[in-house]
């Protein structure tokens, strides 16, 4: 498969604080990849590095085969970029901003933009400054769809959106990706609705990449297990058991392993596990299972 | 990186201007020389010595005078004070004197290079030299003199063709070759009499141009090799003004047949200052150049040098400190001309001591830098001193 | 594409630009009014004398106007780019980075050139009706460094605003003040004549400086 994004051995620090060391990942063409992580794990940092707006301590990124620091105009035209907070040139009106961007992109789809604007019930000479946060996010989205890029990079697109707009955003993105030749790389700290959209999931923890797996694999195989132990007993710890903790008198652990394997792992230090139950998870629960609550 | 080098260069340049000029403000810098005048009573130089806060009159033998005595030893300078005290002698050097004679034959002339090297708007009022009235009248037009001579009426901003043609013809008849190189005169009606203008033609001849009874008066003075002229009006009307020739000799242009009279040699009009205090017996002529003050006493009639005096330029705190503080300085103005442009001083090697210390500090600041940047920063500081140090350690850190 | 980028610059700056135009025209009108009132009160010949023999240049009273115009132009053009780091969007456009910067700076320079040419040019043209070319020339020689100062202040403002590191911004401002003072040295008309090549050279240098800021911006320096 064609690699649209390639990051090799990215190491970055803010001052003395390690953000990640030797981060490697790839995104294949046609995939929707979600980069998830708690606040401060470096999601926006990755986006900035990818677009050449931040120089990492070491390592290289390639977008559509070009080095991040020397993207040619032709390649930039194929990449749609949504900045954190749906930042756009808000001193323009709807009409002006469409006219402005139209000149830069040969495949400009005017109707895609105005179609979305009609849904928002905004008039063409309305200034973007005077719109609500949700409306502004849709303007930014409309511009991206009109640009019709091969690669869409969205930084925290759900920030500040109420559920209606968030869902609208997700649905539009899903339709956009449906053709199969578009690649989307997005970050989010709100996981809700995300299982509808993303094919692959990358979860960042402080200083490292926790997992990079297809979403379906996580949804199908990653489960929560509840169990009881005798008073004073502690279950065995294992790298295949995630975030084992006691909550309201009941023990909880998370794992990709099937029930029987989990039982063996828990009992490997000689404790007796009773009423072990497996529960299927939403992506949000899975995220908490992987990263912990804190 | 190339742009950054340009930035570093400009920063060093600017700091080499502002820091020295701020430091200079904290120190005294311009040398001062005592007032000196040649006495026609005792035939030697007398001067006012600044002793702490007191000013004491002395002569060259070191004799100290009281104020009243000093007035009497320099009657040509203090004649007004003496007149008030009724103490002007009847005669000096066998010549009978009175207040009016002294006043009529005394004048002062001050020259500084800026008088010559200053841009002017080249339009001049042509006064009527023989108006028959006590006061000069302001004309209603001004003239320009370059490719030709043109009088422009001030009320209408139009060229007065007839008057212009009259002057043009008169000048051509007198042998003036256009274009004119420069024109000089005293363009004010607040003077006791008018002698019009002096202009250098393209062949280097100096011409006298004025208007008498509404008619042009043009005369070739026959003076040549003149580099500049400073016109004067003095009560006895004995001279038109002072001139420098191209060989750095100072003359005056006598009203007696435009005779050029040599006053002093080796005066560079672009660097030296000149002061002349003239009286009916002697001229006290001082030339202040970078090495010090040269004072001469010249006999009024013959311009023969009768005495001279040299005072070396005192070295100011600024002059002494400068070479140890800064490897070079930049200035945009100086005392020799009114033009603004960058002037870079010589390189002062004594500053290397301070520069070496600053270079060591630079290496401390750059201790974590692994690239060649730290060596570049060190070299810059070593050669450009404080300005370079501030630039590479603060304004423009050199990174990989 | 070039046109679209210039369109964006125009949308950002048009109202401020028009306002500046009005201020400049008013300022020129004020000076013209003072000259005509003086001509009525003391007479034209006296004005000639004051202008020619006393080196009075009335335009000196508004010498900071071009400087302010440059700063305002720089602010209205580049502050919106730096709020919320919108400049990333501009740099992401499918144009070469140098071309983007060059176009944006050229836009500001051309606006200022237009502003200065129309206002000062119109004023001097009017002046030439009542005063000889020597006076007009001397006044032009006096305002030329002031006008160049306007261009310099614009480029310096862009340089300072685009710089992402705060401490560096302060250093840039110090250097900027020193540079601007080179354009503002008190002198008689014509005293800048030998300085002009140096001032033009400085302007060329200043046009390159925003590149340093943009490099810092692209490296994500804070």
List the helices and strands and how they pair.
The complex is a heterotrimer of chains A (294), B (400) and C (222).
Chain A: E1 3-14, E2 17-28, E3 32-37, H1 43-50, E4 58-63, E5 66-67, H2 73-77, E6 79-82, H3 94-102, H4 110-120, H5 133-147, E7 151-154, H6 163-177, E8 183-188, E9 200-205, E10 208-214, H7 215-221, E11 223-228, E12 241-247, E13 250-255, H8 259-267, E14 274-279, H9 283-291
Parallel strand pairs in A: 3-8, 3-9, 6-7, 7-8
Antiparallel strand pairs in A: 1-2, 1-4, 4-5, 9-10, 11-13, 11-14, 12-13
Chain B: H1 2-25, E1 36-38, E2 45-51, E3 54-59, E4 64-65, H2 67-73, H3 79-84, E5 91-92, E6 95-96, H4 99-105, E7 107-111, H5 113-116, E8 141-145, E9 149-153, E10 158-159, H6 161-173, E11 182-185, E12 197-200, E13 206-212, E14 215-220, E15 226-231, E16 239-245, E17 250-254, E18 260-264, E19 273-278, E20 282-289, E21 292-299, E22 305-312, H7 317-325, E23 330-331, E24 343-344, H8 352-365, H9 373-395
Antiparallel strand pairs in B: 1-2, 2-3, 3-4, 5-6, 7-19, 8-9, 9-10, 11-12, 12-13, 13-14, 15-16, 16-17, 17-18, 19-20, 20-21, 21-22, 23-24
Chain C: H1 2-42, H2 44-53, H3 64-82, H4 87-92, H5 97-130, H6 133-162, H7 166-182, H8 196-218
Structural class of chain A: alpha/beta
Q: Could you say what the CATH topology of the largest domain in chain A is called?
A: Rossmann fold
Largest sheet of chain A: 6 strands, mixed
Number of helices of chain B: 9
Quaternary state of this entry equals: heterotrimer
* Helix fraction bin of chain B: 25-40%
Integer-rounded radius of gyration of chain A: 22 Å
**Largest interface, C-beta within 8 A:** B-C, 37 and 40 residues
Which structural class do you get from the secondary structure elements of chain B?
alpha+beta
- Mean pLDDT across the residues of chain A is 90
Overall morphology of chain A: elongated
| Biggest pleated sheet of chain B | 5 strands, antiparallel
Strands ordered across the widest β-sheet of chain A: 6-7-8-3-9-10
H-E order of chain A: EEEHEEHEHHHEHEEEHEEEHEH
By DSSP (H or I, 4+ residues per run), the number of helices of chain A equals 9
Number of strands of chain B: 24
Tally of extended strands of chain A? 14
Distance between the termini of chain B: 9 Å
Our Rg estimate of chain B from Cα atoms comes to: 28 Å
The figure for the number of domains of chain A is 2
Mean pLDDT of chain B: 94
